[in-house]
Amino acid sequence: MRKRLPGFLLAAPAWAWLAVFFVAPVGMVVWFSFGYKPSIFATQATDRLSFDRYAEVFSPTFFATFQNTLWVGVVGTVLCFLIGLPVAYWMAVKAPPSRRGLLVALVMVPFWTNFLVRTLGWQVILSPDGWLSTALQGIGFEPLAILNTRGAVLLGVVYNYLPLMILPLFVAFDRVNGPLREASKDLGAGKWTTFFRITLPLAQPGIIAGVLLVFIPLMGDYITATVLGGAKGNMVGQLVASQFQTAQNWALGSAMAVVLIIVILATVAVGAAIVWLVTLPIRASHRLVIGAPATAPASASIHEEVAA
Amino acid sequence: MTTATTTEAEAATTSSPGAEAPGTVVIDAVTKHYGDSTAVDRLSLTIEAGEFISLLGPSGCGKTTTLRMIAGFEEPDDGDIRVSGRSVLGVPPYRRDVNTVFQAYALFPHMSVAENVAYGLQQKRTPKAEIHDRVVDALDLAQMRRFADRKPTQLSGGQQQRVALARALVNRPSVLLLDEPLGALDRQLREEMQLELKLLQSRLGVTFVFVTHDQGEALSMSDRIAIMRSGRIEQLADADTVYARPASAYVAAFVGQQNFFSGTVVEGGTAVDSTHALVRGTSAGLPAGGTGLAAVRPEFVSIEADVAADASGAANTARGSLIGVSHLGETMQYLVRLGDDQSLIARRPSPEAPQLSVGDAVVCSWRAESVLLFPADDAASASGYVAPPTV
Amino acid sequence: MSSEEIRILAPAGAAKTIRRELSRRRFLSFAAAASSAGLLAACAPTGSPTTARASGGPLESKLSIYTWGDYDAPDVLDAFTADLGPKISLSAFNSNEEMVAKLVGARGTSGYDIVVPTGTFVAQMAEHGLLAKLNHDLIPNLKHVDPTFLGRAWDPDNEYSICKAWGTTGFVYDVTAIDRELKDWNDFIDAAQNEASGRTSLLDDPSEITGIYFWANGIPWTTTDPDDLDAAEAFLVNELAPHISAFDSYPGGSAIPQATQMLMQSYNGDARLGILESPEPERWKYVLGSPATEIWMDNWAIAAGAPNPEAAHAFIDYVLSPENALAELDYIGYDTGAKGIEQVASDAGLPMLDLVFFTPEQVATMHEGELTEAQERVVQIWNATKAAAGA
User: Fold this and answer.
1) How far apart are CA C41 and CA C38, in angstroms?
2) What chains are in contact with C, requiring at least 3 Cβ pairs below 8 Å?
3) Among residues A3, A216, A294, C12, which is most buried (max CB within 10 A)?
4) ipTM > 0.85?
5) How many domains, chain B?
């Protein structure tokens, strides 16, 4: 027998990576957030710790920005999910298998372009004098007035983040292979029942991955929102950036960053709880526990019949 | 779609229900194409209620496509399929009175064993208490009650197979379709399950349509075997007939093992004159002067040391040198080289097997009654049936 | 990233915008100075790095320039290498603090020869030994620089810096949408609250935003009086923010050509480029902020420890020559401060020079920014204004 490495040793590089590139920086941010900005010539000091920065974060000014960010984050993620789900399902299940590689490549196409360039492209398209607006006016519409509104922000968000939703969903649906869906239909379940009881539950890891991949970066993104939403695209990410870059108040910036992390975690937890609660009665109705047989199985067994 | 439904209804009416008992499956001149290739070619087959029928053939012969058309996962391009006297054309799988045991079981990994079995009953809005009882019964039947609350991933292959069976049978279908269900099991378990399946089928009286490429499986369980080739049925008969009186060289080769001799048809169509032996049968039937195939099963070939050294061979005799001896348990198998291009297998029951060593000159012989004669069949040879090993 | 590379990736319209987004005026904020000063205090070198003082010896073969993105005419750079030999390598920074942080971190070994700090940074950079003294003997073309732009408060004798370019702040409005003449910051505010409500943008910079209130109300925009700051916040958050649709430091990039807004606070050079690129230039009118507004000035300086001081001096002298000054002005769209360049530019037929050059009376109304302890408060007001506009 070959001696096997203990599991934790194999995981050591991963833990080291996590510690150096995640735990340490986040720890520093948390540490800074309890400090203060001692003078206009320094960014932060931690010789005196307090929750004062957090009190500042919860001022009405920042609260409004947090609200706006959360709105964009949640609505954007929900939109991406509602659009990405049927697209990914179609790609994985309905599209001819020979075309799937091409479809995945097409989904990735926007990523071949710089993030800022893509977003600015939309700014050009949506402007009141842009070709889209001109075309719409040509057929009798008002000039386009979507730029610098929340509608434009959502459009940009869906455009920039949709691939991050589609790809994990596609992989998940692709893995729920044909025989399982066929088995479901064979057992009397129609298309929708099959989708909700077999495909969707088995795609759960992909759904979770997609939602987190969209929601978390979206909460920190301010480029999309600012470029397309103008003043209406005010995001926490920009507040944090302004504290670090412009105000040079690392303590307050850190506190904002920590609150943002907490808001993200809390939102994810609340979302998970809502899904759990909503599906609870459905899952309960499908649940079936038999328990161990009280006595030996009845004489129905084939073996015993053979013996007899 | 409305018109289609009407046509189906009419078809169902015209197919005179009542004439076909519940559990009967009638496949009527069904054709199925995939692109340019024809998977099933005007196939007709009537499966009696309560029958255990096997669709046997190599991969690509159309047996799985046929099964999937009965299940409803594929629609025929032409022809009709009736289950229990009612046409199922255009009827989705979930409305057909058939259930399937899938090749890789296709158990739902996120449900417990009991929930897997209950799934079909839940779709039919069966009352909860009844579901519970029927699931317990089905699990008892499959001897899987102990594992009711486990997840499929915690089970062995054989256990998963039993769950798949219980999951299908709990719905009390009139027809059960089995798509190579034993393929993933090891040999001992497979043989055990063959026996169980057969017993189960005869006890429940459900029609079993069993797809396999394993002739042993088909022979041991089936009431009838349909040997398929290129989308058609080559022979439909019970196990004995298929084994003893194969309708073609293809069937002869696919069921059991054969020693083939190819050569010119002589003696009024009763013998084939091959390079290494004159093989004579008991009946005429082959056009004289053409090429023909003679086949002899290894178990009908006797073997002994060649003491006569008499090169002038009598009919149904072949001389060669022994190049291999192997124990198959109850029988001994001998591999004899007749010439550069042909060898011969002989099999004798172990108690009466002669003591021979590799390198010995041997003479093999067989009775004319055990010889089967077929017209030359290039297609059969090309389709890869079991041919005598050439060493 | 060069502007050419960007152009390959983006539609022509967007490329221009991006180039601008990455370019010079993006991060003009005095706040950062505070931090740089902090960095300086913390990391100031213990001894001034030894600077090889240029004495007019032979030029080195290389020259490294650390400047704002897309802030030099490529033709002038190429011509310098062709005429005098040293090969130029360009590096770009986005903000003064980024540049200062790099110089402090390198402690005189950054390898950069020429740096381009904004005026407000020069004094502190010099004080902390980050800049080398200039040898005026090697820069005879200094005589071509207009004395108005020499001897500023932060470097009275131009020991460390010479004006590279300067600019100011005003606003642009759409004369087809606003049919009255806007003349000063009060008109700007009034239009923003009325006909241009929801179609007005402000510069995305703390001091520029508070500046509007201070300039309009005759308060020095460098005030540290808490009452003034409170009043500015109340006005901006409650009175102005609800009418603002964007915070855009470069309306000339896309907002003017695409007519996204009606009224835009903007820098003079950016507004000029935007109007020049607009399909309907006559639609836009630029108004210099009044009764008061800002002036900013970027400067040529030599980094302490510069490896190629002779080439650095030669380069500064080269770009100050009248013909090169004109080429620079034509490319960047801001006045380089060269004597008589207005006439030269006018003779050369450059368009819209009223957005580049200003009368001495106008220049007298422009005030330089200053680093004060109110900076944090100003940033807070900026954040509050943006939050209010986004609500």
Assistant:
1) 5
2) A
3) A216
4) no
5) 2
